[in-house]
Amino acid sequence: MYKKIYENIEEFPLDGFNEKVYRGIKKLGIKNLYELLYYFPRGYDNRTNMKKIGDLRGEEYVVIKGNIMTINSQFMKNKKKMVKAKITDGTGILDLIWFQMPYLQKTLKIGEEYIFIGNVKRGYIFQMINPEYKIVKNQDSFTGEILPIYSTVKTMSQNVLRRILEIGLEKYGALFEENIPEKIISKYSILGREEALKNIHFPENEKKLEEAKRRFAIEELLMLEMGILQKRFLVDEEGTGKYKIDGKKELVKEYVDSLGFQLTKAQKKVITEIYKNLNEGRIINHLIQGDVGSGKTIVAILLLLYIIENGYQGALMAPTEILANQHYLSLIETFEKLGIKVALLTGSLKGKKREELLKEIEKGNIKLVIGTHAIIQENVKFKRLGLIVIDEQHRFGVAQRKALRDKGILSNLIVMSATPIPRSLALSIYGDLDVGIIDELPPGRKPIKTKWINNEIDKEKMYNFIGKKLLEGRQAYFVAPLIEESEKLSAKSTMELFEEVSTYLKGFRVGLLHGKMGNKEKDEIMNGFKKGDINILISTLVIEVGVNVPNASIMVISDSERFGLSTLHQLRGRVGRGEHQSYCFLISKTENMTSEARLKILEETQDGFKIAEEDLKLRKAGEIFGTRQSGISDLKFIDIVHDIKTIKLVKDIVTEYLKENRGEIKNKILEIDIEEKFKDSLTS
């Protein structure tokens, strides 16, 4: 019976409403009864501030109960009517003024008592302009009200939507059985589901509203964490003891010795922790999170070498062909010197070559496969896949991680992200992963000098400065938000930027790179830039991650207000990789306060974790990580930056529950809700 709440909304009659209203409901994105009763207010009109006239002190939003003493109307200079009344409650007199409502002179009766709601302003005496009024039958019991305010459409007023929800709650609220286990409800004093639904829409008082908000904060996190951690629990239970590592490290040692520098303490800590888990036969589900240039890739290479040396295959998956190709070119020589066969598998590999490669992978002759989403495809079979590394984790969701795990007899998985994430967000969005943080940069890295360019004089100086650096032998990136000129957007395109740069920096070789190019053309441009044949590379966001040219020491980002903080930080991280001082110029004439705040943050700090936290304050988590991140973008009651205690509490509650129940969700209602919540993300 409970599953019916996820069926068509039209299966649930709403007394007094016709087909037109159902069409309006669907315009709001509401398709079923669950979505209707979970269509929560975006705010509230709190009318509980009941005041006596004699207690008024300054401007405030109040509810006043009083008798009308006088009421009259008069014409204003623009010949429109104004209605003016005086009321008293025995403690003072208040003026009420309405514009363009002449009918009120007949509607409101002298001597009658009414309730008036509105903003009070101080004049010769206190005034209330255009107040709402109510006739309340039992005025002595009226203590105010908290009215919900919804996001709605032109064809549906707030009052109609409120009435729809009133009827919906009254008729069908009892269908919403409890989806939080009773033991958890009791232990943490959580408001029951039906009562919470009533009080989130039509609160009895402020205390009940806060209790309802707390309940739904716990519920949404509980569903998110339960859905994610259950999968993790089952993976751990099924996988433990299914493989054995002999602990061979000769190839690892040989690779480390060839690096020519020492690993940082942060890198060693993460590696040691993962080695320990592997040696104990435990399934690895690890997020390696670190700032741009912190050395995550080296950690991944060492772990891949370790697993290959001990008899398994490895896979390294990147979000773009450019990045996959770059990983391949940078690793093939090293690995083949160590006697390890490496292959590149991307969507552009077709026909006979692809078939031959797939056979070699299935036989186990290829020990390391580097590729894109192509690795996930069903026809790709491994003989003995031991470890999967995903680069740039924020580009992949839970579904892709699951598809990769299903490739091997093992489920060992390491994901890397150069988008530093506040711990609170990591706890929720990566609930199925252990989080290892590399918060230390290799020694000798120079801070990148960053400047916001917001006028033509500074822009001229910038171009002169870049010209000098190019003559010294350095290289530069220029990034634009668009490929081609747009009528709708005022931002500069790569084509326009190409013309501008070629004019300002005559005599230098300029290359153009964007997503519409074929892979062969992209590779030619990138290789030309790496070799130094191209001095300036103009690009879109295709160079956001992974591109590594140590001689490139200048990054210029055009219309930088169009990018998020984390993206700008990623782009800046493309420079600062060599021995030379590096520079980042953010070109923007924005007057938008949020955009200005972003650019100032980048000028002031290079700490990726601090930048990510500020980005979350300025934007929603869902905007940063995409709508596919397992419900993270659906969180309505949790402030992902500040509510770390609640996030940690719920994660602990869920972990304890799954341990007690051997990974089984005993509450059938919760099981159905989780299945519905994760349905889209697990099939995409």
From TrEMBL:
Pfam families in the record: DEAD, Helicase_C, RecG_dom3_C, RecG_wedge
One of the GO BP terms on file: DNA repair
Record-annotated Helicase C-terminal domain positions: 458-617
Stretches assigned to the Helicase ATP-binding domain: 277-438
InterPro entries listed in its UniProt record: ATP-dep_DNA_helicase_RecG, DEAD/DEAH_box_helicase_dom, Helicase_ATP-bd, Helicase_C-like, NA-bd_OB-fold, P-loop_NTPase, RecG/Mfd, RecG_dom3_C
Reactions listed under catalytic activity: Couples ATP hydrolysis with the unwinding of duplex DNA by translocating in the 3'-5' direction; ATP + H2O = ADP + phosphate + H(+)
Family matches, as PANTHER family: ATP-DEPENDENT DNA HELICASE HOMOLOG RECG, CHLOROPLASTIC
Family from the record: Belongs to the helicase family. RecG subfamily.
Name of the protein: ATP-dependent DNA helicase RecG
